[in-house]
Design brief:
Blueprint (H helix, E strand, L loop, with lengths): L1 H6 L6 E5 L10 H4 L14 H4 L1 E5 L3 E5 L4 E4 L3 E3 L3 E3 L3 E3 L14 H10 L5 E5 L3 H12 L3 E5 L7 H4 L1 H4 L10 E3 L4 E5 L2 E4 L4 E3 L2 E4 L3 E3 L11 E2 L2 E4 L10 E3 L4 E5 L4 E4 L3 H16 L10 E6 L2 E7 L6 E6 L7 E6 L5 E7 L2 H13 L16
Parallel strand pairs: 1-2, 6-18, 8-9, 8-14, 9-10, 17-19
Antiparallel strand pairs: 3-4, 4-5, 7-15, 11-12, 12-13, 16-17, 19-20, 21-22, 22-25, 23-24, 24-25
Length: about 375
């Protein structure tokens, strides 16, 4: 947001407050590579050159909208315009046992130190992040068990038929599906049916919640804990904007609420919010996308699919490691696309979704043919 504000001509004072004691950094590599080795997550931003005053290790505690004041653990700060980018906090499971998560650079370092050969590692959750963690633990020589509530990894997002295609990737993991965790204890995890899974290391990956508890008495409109914003990222208070994990925005494109939990959503939110602050009125409602690296494969997903949408599996004749899935609406428009090890197909699919034209059915079976 600081970079975007300067790029669109904002010349006023910018104060950046962050609860972590180091400058903002790139989080996606933490679960993709940061569990294997220390990685450079530096964003390459020179805040001093931008004229941004950074106050690190300072946490916001309360917001007084009427007086336009933020109370932190150090002081009271006045503002003309406030941008909320407080992110999200990992959800912890019940029980007295130690459980790790991977959200910050310190989290990644702690987890990496625990992932040593032959240790029994239990990963709770087989979603995007859980898969990356399990993959890293395998690479580091751990004995990995993953506990998943659905029938297969990512079944809640893609449906069971598509999710079943991921199962062969997990062959070296003890993947337990359709299970529920009752509690985490000192030497493992107790399941809802009373069974116990022994573990030396337990890593929870069951989701996050917006880090907005400090706004409870502010009167800002929130939905499922996230600050409600429009497509310009403006909240119910015209002087307050919110981007990233702490926000949920209305999407005219989809006619639905869109959470801000992915990297690109935060980037696009900064573009829209900065434009609105300086008065250029940028409406940013781009097609969402995300990527993941797991079990030696790169996944690229673009669009927004419903499990009820019709889907077609797309293949590459001479390479079973490359495949994809196209989701289509009732009018045969492409609404979402998953590409595995095929970035060109991802780029073509994004163009097809943006074009909004019916798809030629003859092109669907082959991932090598542009839609």
């Amino acid at each position: 947001m600081c970079v975007e504000l300067r790029s669109v001509g904002y010349e006023g004072e910018i104060l950046l407050i962050g609860s972590e004691r180091h400058a903002p950094y790139n989080r996606p590599p933490l679960t993709k590579h940061g569990l294997l080795a220390a990685v450079d997550t530096n964003l390459g931003i020179d805040f001093e050159a931008l004229g941004v005053d950074c106050s690190l290790g300072e946490s916001a505690l309360a917001l007084d909208r009427e007086r336009r004041r933020v109370q932190t653990d150090r002081r009271e700060i006045s503002y003309d315009t406030l941008v909320l980018a407080t992110g999200a906090e990992p959800i912890s499971l019940p029980g007295p046992g130690a459980q790790l998560c991977v959200r910050t650079s310190e989290d990644a370092e702690r987890a990496r130190m625990q992932l040593v050969p032959s240790r029994r590692v239990v990963v709770i959750g087989a979603g995007w992040i859980g898969a990356e963690i399990a993959s890293a633990a395998l690479t580091r020589g751990c004995h990995v068990t993953c506990l998943e509530g659905a029938a297969a990894p990512l079944a809640s997002q893609f449906g069971e038929e598509v999710a079943a295609r991921f199962l062969p990737w997990w062959r070296d993991v003890n993947l337990l599906t359709r299970v529920r965790v009752a509690e985490v204890v000192a030497d493992g995890v107790i399941l809802a049916d009373g069974d116990k899974v022994l573990a030396d290391v337990i890593i929870a990956s069951v989701g996050v919640r917006p880090a907005t508890d400090w706004l409870a008495d502010s009167g800002l409109a929130r939905r499922r804990g996230a600050v409600v914003v429009d497509e310009r990222r403006r909240s119910s208070d015209p002087n307050i904007f919110a981007i990233g994990d702490c926000a949920i925005r209305w999407s005219p494109r989809y006619g639905a609420w869109m959470p801000g939990g992915h990297w690109d959503e935060a980037v696009q939110g900064a573009v829209a919010g900065a434009g609105a602050i300086v008065g250029t009125d940028v409406i940013n409602d781009k097609i969402p996308y995300l990527w993941s690296e797991q079990f030696g494969r790169r996944l690229l997903y673009v669009g927004r699919a419903d499990t009820a949408d019709r889907h077609v599996v797309r293949l590459v004749d001479d390479d079973p490691e490359k495949w994809g899935v196209a989701w289509l609406d009732d009018d045969n428009h492409l609404v979402a696309h998953l590409s595995v090890n095929h970035p060109l197909a991802f780029a073509a699919a994004r163009r097809a979704i943006e074009a909004g034209q019916p798809v030629d059915e003859r092109k669907l079976p082959s991932l090598d043919i542009e839609l």
